[in-house]
Structure formats: structure tokens, C-alpha cells
């Protein structure tokens, strides 16, 4: 009887777990996309619809968390200290990611296997739009994340000088609570979004059509695995935190990112979990939204490796000076690359145009596999921002253990 009750309890726990249903949805999406590709492609609207709903929460959550983070501190020196620490950390880790992408690209040489039998698509229509120099003003005007970041920082700073700061902070905190509560109910749709995203991907590109690019994809995934568990893992180990334990703690959010290929879909949940871990609201409110635009480890690895791949594909030998130029350019242009759909290709195009050595037509060759590698980019970016927040929280002495956070969550 006890064994039966225990089994029923476990079954009930599994069936009520959102992670379980996201996994089932991903598997069903893959099966549908493979056996009924036309129907799978039509499911794109389902995946896009879920992400569109989530995106409605991004602006208010980023605005509220940053304003509360800065305005709630009442100490602008602390704001400046956290901001400076974050930017230094972002730049160092992103540069390491860029360098790793280039080094692995040269060691594995994924582009060498594709020298025969593959036809680069005619992308003249595409390159007409990407041959222009990178326009920062246009990029900023079309990047709502950067706009909200700047406005929220200004409002947060001004709020510290307002005579009714405490009342305004209390009101904004209530608004934040309401927004997160609404998001909690929206997240029950996550399995539907994951199903739509997977069904479209497999239905559109198939399981076999990307075999010639398998080595590139495998190299990207292995590189990001190494980066997460050796680089980010070493950083957390320095602070006596196990990377596996952290990943287990955010596994539900990672599955959502995997299914939707978008870190946006789980970003609000990550912020909520980091706060429950013990990272202060002020640190989370500053580091996570800022990191979403400036701490893109996965994107950095992909961009640098994609350029080396294209150089090998066209048999272009880059000098050491050109490699350093590429790293320098990507250090600047990769910032905010996750904020606008397709901006990764704009960053690649602007970098290729700057070095004048690799044909822009090669970008069309990456279009087919970009979707399949976006999961790796999104997951690495996601984990990287979580680690950054923990590091800054630790440096500020505002962090509790994951074990305590898990106990609170189970309660």
C-alpha cells in the first residue's frame, strides 16, 4: 500500500512538472516535423506566437527590475560599483569566448570538409542589404532592449533624488509582483511553444539535409560545452559553486530555451530564480538585463567560429593581424546581437565587409544551419548571464547557497 502510494505520488509529481511536458512537446515536435514536414512547417506560427507573448513581458520586466535595482538601493555609489564590475566581467569573458571560437575553428577546421560537392546559394538579394556599413544609430533605434536599458537606468538614477522615492519604489514593486504573477500563468504555454518551434525546425530543414554541415554544428556544440563546463565552471568553482548544480537548478528554463531557441522566453524566470537563490534584487535587476545585451558568450563563440569556417570554405588564409582585427571588431559589434532578430548576420556581414577578404555570399551558406545552432547560442548566453549574476552577487556579499534556494523552492 505504501509502495503504491509512493508510486502514485511520484507519478503525480512528474505529470505536474512543467519540465516533463516541455520534453514531451519537444519530442512530439521532432516526430511531427520529420514524418509530416508540411504540417510541421505550419507550426511555426505556434512557436512564434509563444515567443511573441513572452516578448510582451520583456520590456516591463527589464524596466521594472532595473529601476527597482537602482532606485531601491538609494546608494548611487553601489550602482556604479556593480555596473563597473559587470562591464569588466562581460568584456573579459566575452573576449575569452571569441578567442576560443577562433582557436577551435583553426584546430578542427570544420570548413575544410565542405570544399567539394556543396553549392553556395546565390545570395545577391541578401548581400545587397548587408554590404552597407554597420549603422549604430539604426541598430540602436531598432533595438528595444538597449533603449529600455538606457531609459530605465536614467529613471532609476533620478528616482534616488525624488522626495517620494520610497512610495514610488513600493508601487513599482507591486507592479513587478503582478507582472511576474501573470508571467507564471503564461509559462504554462511553454510546452506548446516548444512543440511549435521544434516541429517547424525539423519540418523546414529535415533531419538529413544538414549532414554536410554536421562537422560545423558538432564543433560549435562541443566548443560551447567546453566553454560552459570548463570556463564558466572554473569561474563558479572559484566561488565554491558546482556548475552542474546550478544547471540542475535552472533545468526547466534551459529546456524552454532549447525548445524555443530563444533566451528571451526564459529570461524573466531566470531573474526570478536568481533572486530566490539569494542574489539581491538590485544585482539581478542590473546584471541580467545588461548581460542580455552585453554578455553574449554563445553568440561570441558562434560569430568567431562562423568567420573562420567561411575563410576555410573559400580557402582564404587570414594573417595574425587580420585575426586580431576580427576579434576587435566582434568585441564591439557583437554587443546587443541578441536583441534583434537576424542581427547576428548583420554583425557577420559588417565584420566580413570590414576585413575585405571573405565573400559576403558565404552568409547564405550559414542560413540553413543557423536555426540548429541557435539553441547552443541561446543556452550558452543564458547560462553565462546566470553565472555573471552569481559572480557579481558573490563579490557584493549578497548570495545564499543553491541548496537553500532549492529548499525554499520546494516549500
Summed up, what is this model?
By secondary structure, the protein is mostly helical.
Structure, described:
- By secondary structure, this protein is an all-alpha fold.
- It contains 20 helices and no strands.
- It has helices at residues 2-15, 18-35, 37-42, 44-71, 76-108, 124-130, 136-141, 144-159, 165-186, 190-205, 214-238, 243-249, 251-260, 267-277, 281-294, 297-313, 320-333, 343-355, 362-395, 402-410.
- The two termini are 26 Å apart.
List its traits:
411 residues; mainly alpha
String of helices and strands: HHHHHHHHHHHHHHHHHHHH
Structural class comes to: mainly alpha
Distance between the first and last residues' Cα: 26 Å
Low-confidence stretches: 113-132
Q: Radius of gyration, rounded? A: 22 Å
Classify the helix fraction into a percent range. over 70%
Q: Total strand count, please?
A: 0
Arithmetic mean of pLDDT = 76
What fraction of residues sit in β-strands?
under 5%
Main beta-sheet annotation: none
Tell me, what's the shape? globular
Number of helical elements: 20
Task: Give me the secondary-structure topology.
Blueprint lengths: L1 H14 L2 H18 L1 H6 L1 H28 L4 H33 L15 H7 L5 H6 L2 H16 L5 H22 L3 H16 L8 H25 L4 H7 L1 H10 L6 H11 L3 H14 L2 H17 L6 H14 L9 H13 L6 H34 L6 H9 L1
Amino acid at each position: 500500500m505504501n509502495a503504491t502510494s509512493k508510486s502514485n505520488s511520484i507519478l503525480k509529481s512528474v505529470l505536474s512538472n512543467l519540465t516533463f511536458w516541455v520534453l514531451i512537446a519537444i519530442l512530439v515536435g521532432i516526430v511531427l516535423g520529420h514524418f509530416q514536414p508540411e504540417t510541421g512547417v505550419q507550426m511555426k506560427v505556434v512557436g512564434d506566437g509563444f515567443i511573441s507573448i513572452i516578448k510582451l513581458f520583456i520590456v516591463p520586466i527589464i524596466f521594472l527590475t532595473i529601476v527597482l535595482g537602482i532606485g531601491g538601493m538609494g546608494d548611487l555609489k553601489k550602482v556604479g560599483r556593480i555596473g563597473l564590475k559587470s562591464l569588466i566581467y562581460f568584456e573579459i569573458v566575452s573576449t575569452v569566448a571569441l578567442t576560443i571560437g577562433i582557436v577551435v575553428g583553426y584546430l578542427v577546421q570544420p570548413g575544410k570538409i565542405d570544399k567539394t560537392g556543396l553549392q553556395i546559394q546565390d545570395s545577391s538579394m541578401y548581400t545587397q542589404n548587408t554590404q552597407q556599413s554597420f549603422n549604430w544609430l539604426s541598430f540602436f533605434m531598432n533595438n528595444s532592449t538597449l533603449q529600455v536599458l538606457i531609459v530605465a537606468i536614467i529613471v532609476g538614477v533620478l528616482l534616488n533624488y525624488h522626495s517620494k522615492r520610497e512610495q514610488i519604489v513600493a508601487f513599482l514593486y507591486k507592479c513587478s509582483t503582478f507582472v511576474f504573477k501573470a508571467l507564471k500563468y503564461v509559462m504554462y504555454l511553454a510546452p506548446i511553444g516548444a512543440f511549435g518551434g521544434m516541429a517547424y525546425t525539423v519540418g523546414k530543414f529535415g533531419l538529413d539535409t544538414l549532414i554536410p554541415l554536421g562537422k560545423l554544428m558538432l564543433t560549435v556544440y562541443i566548443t560551447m560545452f567546453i566553454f560552459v563546463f570548463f570556463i564558466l565552471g572554473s569561474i563558479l568553482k572559484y566561488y565554491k559553486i558546482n556548475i552542474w548544480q546550478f544547471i540542475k537548478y535552472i533545468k526547466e528554463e534551459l529546456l524552454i530555451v532549447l525548445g524555443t531557441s530563444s533566451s528571451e522566453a526564459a529570461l524573466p524566470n531566470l531573474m526570478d530564480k536568481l533572486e530566490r537563490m539569494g542574489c539581491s534584487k538590485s544585482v539581478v535587476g542590473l546584471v541580467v538585463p545588461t548581460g542580455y545585451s552585453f554578455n553574449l558568450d554563445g553568440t561570441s563563440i558562434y560569430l568567431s567560429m562562423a568567420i573562420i569556417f567561411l575563410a576555410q570554405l573559400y580557402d582564404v588564409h587570414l594573417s595574425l593581424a587580420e585575426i586580431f582585427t576580427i576579434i576587435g571588431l566582434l568585441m564591439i559589434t557583437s554587443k546587443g546581437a541578441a536583441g534583434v532578430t537576424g542581427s547576428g548576420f548583420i554583425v557577420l556581414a559588417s565584420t566580413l565587409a570590414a576585413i575585405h577578404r571573405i565573400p559576403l555570399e558565404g552568409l547564405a551558406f550559414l542560413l540553413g544551419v543557423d536555426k540548429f545552432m541557435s539553441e547552443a547560442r541561446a543556452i550558452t548566453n543564458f547560462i553565462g548571464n546566470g553565472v555573471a549574476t552569481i559572480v557579481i552577487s558573490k563579490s557584493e556579499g549578497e548570495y545564499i547557497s543553491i541548496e537553500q534556494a532549492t529548499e525554499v523552492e520546494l516549500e
